[in-house]
Write a structure and sequence with these properties.
The protein has 447 residues and is an alpha/beta fold. The protein contains 16 helices and 17 strands. The chain has three domains: 82 residues, 2-Layer Sandwich (Nucleotidyltransferase, domain 5); 134 residues, Rossmann fold, CATH 3.40.50.720; 200 residues, Nucleotidyltransferase, domain 5 (2-Layer Sandwich). The longest helix has 22 residues.
Amino acid sequence: MRKTIDILVAEIGSTTTTVNAFVLGSDPVFIGQGMAPTTVLDGDVNIGLVGAIENLKDKIGDFVYSEMLACSSAAGGLKMTVHGLVYDMTVRAAKEAALGAGANIKLITAGKLRRTDLEKIKQIKPNIILLAGGVDYGDRETALYNGEKLAELKLNVPVIYAGNIENREEISHIFQEAGQEVYIVDNVYPSIDNLNVEPTRKMIQKVFEKHIVTAPGMSKVKELVTGNIIPTPGAVMECAILLYNDIGDLMAVDIGGATTDVHSVTEGSDEIQKITVNPEPLAKRTVEGDLGVFVNSRNLFDLCGEDIYKKFSNADELINNIKPTPKKEEEKEFVLYLASKALEVAVKRHAGKLSSYFGPTGRTFYVEGRDLTNVKWIIGTGGIFSRLEGGEKLLENINDGGSGKELYPPSSAKVLIDRDYIMAACGVLSKKYPDEALKLIKNSFGI
């Protein structure tokens, strides 16, 4: 007899498509997971989706399903360019919003766009352009100039404007006259030291969902997917925010084959906030495009230096024959060692740092960057943590790579592992079924 599955959530990756099956209700259950190669390069991502569904049927038996939602990082993911006024102010705020939405930022500019900037934008062919600049009732000229230059490119790319409130009508006219879609949201930096990234983050995801079907190989995706499609890193962030509202301050790490993502949802401590140079958003994501255990494994190998040879006498052979999914025990140990270096470097880049200088009144302390000292939970998601033994220990030793000045989570922070590998899927689910998504991810953690 065929099973009835309430909902499937597909994760369409750059190389692999995963389909997760759930039964919803007051006591939701994760049924199983199917996988197949992503077929975006074949011109039809549905081939991979059907393959993943068939793989799931091989595991759990035949079934019918009522609904399918999805997240995607295929077809280059969400490629964006970000343009603002002052790098440490409006540009930084816009960047935080884009990264939090799950974007792959290809270009960031501050001030007026130059000819070389415009050439780069044409070459990048972004999915979305984010235009900011000027606090409310402050500088108007730069954002208007940039808007006109972007409109002249005639890229047929949606533009989100999140800058000075006084420019809204003018920006709308500029892009409407050029026949280009424009979306107006609240300023990401409305006043000095005031970040307002959430409206922009949410709009980026809405625009992505509308336009993902035009990406190469994705045109038929709506034939199978009945609901939302959001960027995969944005889905992880949605789940992190959902968890924060239930269990408190947290950090989530995903060490992948090509990148390492770190998400944190925390306001930090009151004490640190008083000496922080620049404001930080509640929800922050950093993505390290040079740290991955397969595609970028050579980078990690080089970062390890001579130490890797002390651990593995045949390190050269292992790095030259590295596989996306290690099978032998020594291969698994080697990948975990590379993952430990990815974790060390990624967390160091994500975390803020306590610094000081000597002034007229003596030594003065200040903080730049993210304060993680109030984090109560450290979450591991992705294949390294769900499919390899030893991933949990990496997170328990997260402070080992610091010098003592980094604002890392305290030793009292507890480690949670997404054993079912469903954090992104639960982030997608949370948009429509938040209560069920929360129960499912907590079940995956075993709490």
